[in-house]
Design brief:
alpha/beta, four-stranded mixed sheet, Rossmann fold, Helicase, Ruva Protein, domain 3, globular
Length: 457
């Protein structure tokens, strides 16, 4: 068995940051490379939720990184503190020791904790209630029902409660599930004649957390079953936490007896965040992603986007994507470019934007937008993508870097190469030249009308 030195850890982390920046989190620093044994590198992860998350979502990227850094065909295995001194099981077999009794289907995001939840006027009550519930499950408010618009932190709060309870009591039996999964599980159990198992699963828990409970709307049978689940848990003093896009009485086609049950604990609404909260959230996200951002960038993004927090994150991701594609640090200028390009403002008036170019090319070559913007290199996609780049260079004011960034995070040399390839092929391939010229002239004669553009942005 070989120990792994600090050099390995450093190179490994650098590789992950460079090649999978979107996946990296600040808590990755706590992952400890343990040893190399029988072709497997073992990595110690102390937090059960992080361990489960890494096993399920990050194995491929970690394996690739370990192979790149060592130049050897190695496997990777994440282990918990309990496994640290025990021999490896068969490769590929997930280790479960040291985990609290997490429901097999439960996947929690280590990002969604109270530590990472920014409190502001829009969510202060919901947050305070969530903390109280997490601190005294079953005794503070039961049920705790949180509702509000999309992207305002309901799922985050539910998972924060779940993780906080698990951390305080590793033996707590807790089930976090989406309403959709609950409904599917119910129908599967009915079909398979396994209702006893279903009831065991959901009625023998200390805490039941169901996300997006408004999906019960119109589902009469599931409502009926859930009503009994609710009563069983309630009578046993077990905590229930529910989220919804509407207040209990505003969920359409929900049985009255459920509405009244939902209202009998604490109902809290989350509202859209104010400017200051949006700025703090962006700072927090940047920190979580190990992303150095100057102070004016969160303020700039927060001033432009006030709809919901998922949109804020999307904007930050665009800025990060452009910085990564261009290989430069994040600055206010760069943020402006990234967000302007996105809204079509980066083009000159009366000229087609990237969207219109992409529309024309996808239609002409019958390829999908997602393929054009992906990393796929198959000829059937590479050529249309190169045509897009060639047209983008002729019809927009975007730089080579920006064009490359838009088409799947490629760098400016790829765009230069694309332009040369298209020019060369136009010389040698008469038919191809005709196709490109037609696309080119269609774009010149049908530029995007400026008013249509501004209405959609
Ligand atoms: P919802 O379930 O209400 O649609 P989510 O909980 O999925 O919304 O939140 C969307 C994104 O916004 C998540 O990435 C979440 O971490 C983030 N988010 C929401 N509210 C906050 C907050 N108060 N502080 C930090 N991040 C937040
Ligand atoms: Mg949600």
């Amino acid at each position: 068995m070989a120990r792994l030195g600090p050099d390995f850890a450093r190179q490994f982390n650098e590789h992950l940051r460079r090649h999978h920046p979107e996946m990296c989190r600040h808590w990755f620093d706590d992952i400890e490379p343990l040893d190399l044994e029988g072709g497997t590198v073992r990595m110690l992860v102390r937090e059960p939720v992080q361990l489960r998350y890494l096993q399920r979502c990050c194995t491929r990227q970690f394996t690739e990184a370990v192979q790149a850094v060592t130049g050897r065909l190695l496997a990777i295995r994440f282990v918990g503190p309990q496994d640290e001194f025990t021999a490896s099981p068969e490769p590929g077999e997930p280790s479960t020791e040291g985990l609290p009794r997490l429901d097999e289907q439960m996947l929690l995001s280590p990002d969604y904790t109270f530590d990472n939840f920014v409190v502001g006027p829009g969510n202060r009550l919901a947050h305070a209630a969530a903390m109280a519930v997490a601190g005294r499950p079953g005794r503070a408010y039961n049920p705790f029902f949180v509702h509000g618009g999309v992207g305002l932190g309901k799922t985050h709060l539910l998972q924060a409660i779940t993780q906080s309870i698990l951390r305080a009591d590793r033996t707590a039996r807790i089930c976090y599930i989406s309403c959709g999964t609950f409904t599917d599980a119910f129908h599967d159990s009915v079909r398979a004649g396994r209702m006893t198992e279903f009831r065991d699963r959901f009625r023998n828990v200390d805490v039941l957390v169901i996300d997006d409970i408004h999906f019960l709307s119109k589902r009469e049978q599931t409502q009926e079953e859930f009503f009994h689940t609710f009563n069983a848990l309630y009578q046993a003093g077990r905590q229930m936490v529910l989220s919804s896009d509407a207040a209990p009485q505003d969920i359409p086609d929900l049985e009255e007896r459920l509405t009244s049950r939902f209202n009998c604990g604490l109902v809290a609404r989350v509202d859209r965040p104010c400017f200051e909260t949006r700025v703090s959230i962006l700072r927090n996200k940047a920190q979580m992603l190990n992303l150095p951002v100057p102070d004016d960038v969160p303020a700039y993004i927060a001033a432009r986007i006030d709809s919901n927090i998922r949109e804020l994150e999307g904007a930050l991701a665009k800025v990060r994507g452009l910085a990564h594609a261009m290989g430069c640090p994040i600055t206010l200028e760069l943020a402006k470019t990234a967000l302007a390009a996105d809204s079509g403002l980066g083009r000159a008036v009366g000229q087609p934007n990237l969207q219109i170019i992409v529309d024309a090319v996808t239609k002409f070559y019958d390829v999908r937008l997602t393929d054009l913007l992906s990393k796929r290199r198959h000829k059937s996609i590479a050529l249309p993508r190169q045509v897009c780049m060639w047209l983008a260079r002729r019809h927009t004011r975007f730089s080579l870097e920006e064009i490359g960034g838009y088409f799947g995070g490629r760098d400016h040399t790829t765009v230069m190469h694309a332009i040369r390839t298209i020019d060369a092929r136009r010389q040698s391939d008469h038919r191809f030249n005709g196709e490109v010229e037609r696309l080119d002239s269609d774009l010149s004669t049908n530029p995007a009308p400026a008013d249509v553009e501004s209405r959609t942005t």
